[in-house]
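Incident log, support desk, overnight shift.

02:14 A customer reports that sequence design results differ from what the structure should imply. Their input is reproduced verbatim below. On-call engineer (initials T.W.) acknowledged and began investigating.
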């Protein structure tokens, strides 16, 4: 079954229910209206020569129009290629060179007004379960993004798992304040809500006071730890008290922040763990103990084990089929499991804990950054002789991107070089200068010692 056939079935079960609210756009659409708008939009895409299997770049800010465009691409049988709206021209060009999209939807044309009149007899919701639905970009160890291929079946399995685990129903209203180009906002937020037959209230971005203003209408909120930390700083966590469920993910939730949320929001947050390649993998229980510092237990239908070097390995209907253009032998183990790159352990009660990462990945505010990509840009400066980019602990961002330079380049020069080629969240928040970088016997920079040295 296609993901969208499941959504159409959920809409037809209760067509008069309001399922999409977007106060900033004055939107309050029933299931029947959302069905009608997305089928018209899908038929217009087909009239605009979007064929089944074509790739459509979707790089838009959160809005009701973005939700419609996303659903329409899938209903038309095309593949959604997600891209951060903050990417520079160079970053976007790299993504396009891999994904080769035939069409592009950005904030400038998200209303789809430039398309021809909708086809009269569109072919909608006919994709098979193993047909590709999404290319999600994720930074590879080389530092340049790779395209993870997810099928309708993968996304549907991922959505059904969270619907079951969190007892998500048609009575729920999700307060959606996440970006709509990542697994958290799309695969969990939008796909989960549509699969459950529930409703969403979409905000154009995250801001503590706007969130607090709309919280009373909603039963669920999903955020990255930075969002909870900002709500705490703004003294607005208590707005979440009326919610049935508050979930944190995409980055580690520090135990002290867990305790602050539990106290001020009147309920412990449910921390869960996922990836672009796999949708959701584990989560703390809906009923039962939510353990600070733990990502909980396996999601329904997900198998999880510890592989070589304590890397977490997973398997299940939610797990992607591979990266575009990369041999699956390089991506999966010989017996078909996906090594996540996260180092884990299981405690005596079967709760999983993530204790590190096999790669040098930095997670800042829920976004992934690979040091190599930034180092490559900084190295271009003639007065940078050597450079290492590391993540330093940060209360606000979890980890803060920091460039450590050997050389005497001007910091403003470096900032403008970086701004010309990298999205804002990747740009170092701090530049430090040292005489030499600590290296191990293999000549590799020892990032742990470097972190200790610069404090
Ligand atoms: C914004 N900035 C960041 C940043 N976000 N810097 C580092 N890390 C980030 N995450 C920059 C801005 O460009 C700006 O730079 C400055 O920091 C302050 O901006 P802001 O306006 O205060 O930021 P804001 O737009 O409010 O964004 C903060 C945020 C956002 C937390 C709302 O980062 C966010 O939405 N994060 C969620 C990411 C996410 O969805 N991850 C899921 C991945 S899926 P300057 O220089 O202009 O001042 C995944 C799987 C799973 O991981 O398990 O879910
Ligand atoms: P992405 O490639 O953006 O999908 O990011 C996936 C990565 O985010 C995972 O491999 C983990 O390293 C990290 N991650 C997601 N959820 C959590 C969590 N709850 N705790 C710690 N790390 C997490």
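02:41 Re-run completed on a clean worker. Output:
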């Amino acid at each position: 079954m296609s993901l969208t056939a499941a959504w159409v079935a959920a809409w037809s079960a209760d067509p008069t229910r309001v399922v999409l609210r977007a106060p900033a756009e004055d939107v309050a659409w029933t299931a029947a209206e959302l069905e009608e708008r997305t089928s018209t939009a899908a038929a217009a895409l087909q009239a605009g020569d979007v064929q089944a299997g074509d790739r459509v770049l979707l790089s838009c800010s959160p809005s009701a129009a973005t939700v419609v465009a996303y659903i329409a691409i899938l209903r038309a049988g095309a593949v959604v290629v997600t891209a951060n709206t903050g990417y520079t021209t160079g970053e976007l060009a790299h993504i396009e060179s891999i994904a080769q999209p035939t069409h592009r939807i950005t904030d400038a044309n998200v209303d789809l007004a430039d398309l021809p009149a909708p086809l009269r007899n569109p072919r909608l919701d006919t994709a098979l379960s193993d047909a590709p639905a999404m290319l999600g970009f994720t930074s590879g160890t080389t530092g340049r993004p790779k395209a993870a291929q997810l099928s309708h079946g993968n996304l549907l399995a991922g959505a059904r798992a969270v619907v079951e685990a969190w007892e998500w129903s048609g009575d729920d209203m999700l307060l959606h304040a996440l970006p709509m180009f990542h697994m958290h906002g799309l695969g969990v937020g939008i796909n989960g809500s549509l699969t459950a037959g529930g409703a969403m209230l979409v905000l154009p971005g995250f801001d503590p006071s706007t969130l607090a203003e709309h919280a009373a209408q909603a039963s669920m909120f999903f955020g990255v730890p930075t969002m909870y930390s900002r709500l705490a700083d703004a003294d607005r966590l208590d707005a979440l008290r009326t919610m049935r469920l508050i979930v944190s993910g995409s980055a580690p939730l520090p135990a002290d922040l867990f305790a602050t949320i539990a106290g001020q929001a009147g309920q412990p947050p449910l921390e869960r763990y996922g990836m672009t390649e796999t949708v959701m993998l584990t989560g703390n229980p809906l009923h039962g103990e939510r353990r600070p510092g733990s990502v909980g237990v396996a999601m329904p239908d997900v198998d999880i084990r510890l592989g070589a070097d304590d890397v977490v390995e997973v398997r299940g209907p939610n797990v992607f089929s591979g990266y575009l253009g990369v041999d699956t032998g390089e991506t999966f183990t010989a017996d078909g499991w996906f090594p996540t790159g996260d180092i884990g352990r299981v405690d005596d009660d079967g709760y999983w804990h993530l204790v590190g990462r096999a790669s040098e990945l930095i997670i800042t505010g829920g976004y992934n950054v690979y040091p190599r990509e930034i180092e490559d840009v900084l190295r271009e400066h003639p007065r940078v002789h050597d450079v290492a980019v590391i993540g330093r602990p940060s209360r606000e961002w979890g980890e803060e991107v920091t460039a450590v330079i050997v050389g005497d380049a001007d910091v403003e020069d470096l900032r403008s070089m970086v701004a010309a080629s990298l999205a804002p969240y990747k740009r170092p928040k701090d530049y430090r200068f040292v005489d030499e970088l600590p290296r191990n016997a293999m000549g590799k920079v020892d990032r742990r010692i470097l972190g200790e040295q610069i404090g």
